[in-house]
Amino acid sequence: MTSGLPEAKVAVITGGTRGLGLAIAQACAREGAAVIVASRTPASVEQAVLSLKKEGLQASGQPCNVADLAQVEELAEHALNIFGRLDVWVNNAGLSAAHGPTIDVLPGEVTQVIQTNILGAYHGSLVALRHFLRQGKGKLINVLGRGSRQPVPYGNAYAASKAWLRSFTLALAKEYKGSGVGIYTFNPGLVDTDLLRKFRVIAGYEERAKMLRMIMRMWAKPPQVAARKALWIASDATDGRTGLDINLLGPAALVSGALREGVRHLLRRPSPAIELNVISVPAAFDLSDREQT
Ligand SMILES: NC(=O)c1ccc[n+]([C@@H]2O[C@H](COP(=O)([O-])OP(=O)(O)OC[C@H]3O[C@@H](n4cnc5c(N)ncnc54)[C@H](OP(=O)(O)O)[C@@H]3O)[C@@H](O)[C@H]2O)c1
Fold first, then answer.
1. What would the mean pLDDT of 37-65 be, rounded to a whole number?
2. CB under 6 Å to ligand 1: residues?
3. Which domains does the chain have, with CATH numbers?
4. Residue nearest to atom 17 of ligand 1 (CA)
């Protein structure tokens, strides 16, 4: 496949050590780009780089917690030191809090979501744009997720963080229109990764895993599918189209996934097994002694 991502481009992918981020790194590197993958866990960074290099791809890595601006600045420095340039920055690092009622979620978990999905993407955008605006070109891709366009009960912190990121990114695109820099949102739809498979849920709400399994059967795709679209956004095909707001789970995909599942049900075909690791997390707030009215 030719994506139009010219060889010798350099792409940084935060959260690039597994799941969607690693698939994006693979897709870019297979087209001839040099990639830098980053995440909080040094061993995962090492492993991801090794897996890319084993394929003969150009890759480097750097441990980086995107919540810390200094570490994100060091990540950009690393890219420039190792490969001498910086063309694409993907703010992909993301996580969610335990699934359940907002009050029951530990405040520390919500803080982590804000620090990674909001502050982390802000730090990445800041660092990438400082560089891109100086060189008058570059592509910044901010990865959205469920909730970027509507509230999501029981997934409130994650959804609200993605709504913030969408608004933030589209405003950036307007501010820097005409600068030569491309700024895009990318909602990859439902992607079959640890983010879904390790289902952390507030104790008492474990039944909701059933719903997740059904949703995954309807709409989840392997990370490589979404990565192909990310590669396209990173390519010359989007030159001059800053502000693109791309959503892989639009109405057509929603309807076709639901129809496929409905037909399977009607024909009584067995459901494909979806293995979830359901992890119960104690509620942070006990409502059992509330006053009855
Ligand atoms: N899976 C889906 O259905 C789905 C749908 C829509 C959008 N997305 C978005 O796609 C992105 C990737 O998700 P995924 O499904 O691939 O999740 P994943 O498999 O859990 O991977 C998340 C990656 O982010 C890294 N990470 C987490 N917190 C970080 C931090 N503070 N600093 C640096 N790296 C951090 C993780 O590594 P460490 O733990 O080692 O740091 C890992 O490499 C996220 O932004 C997510 O919101 C996913």
1. 98
2. 14-15, 17-21, 39-41, 44, 64-67, 92-95, 116, 120, 143, 145-146, 188, 190-191, 193-196
3. 10-193+221-249 (3.40.50.720)
4. 195
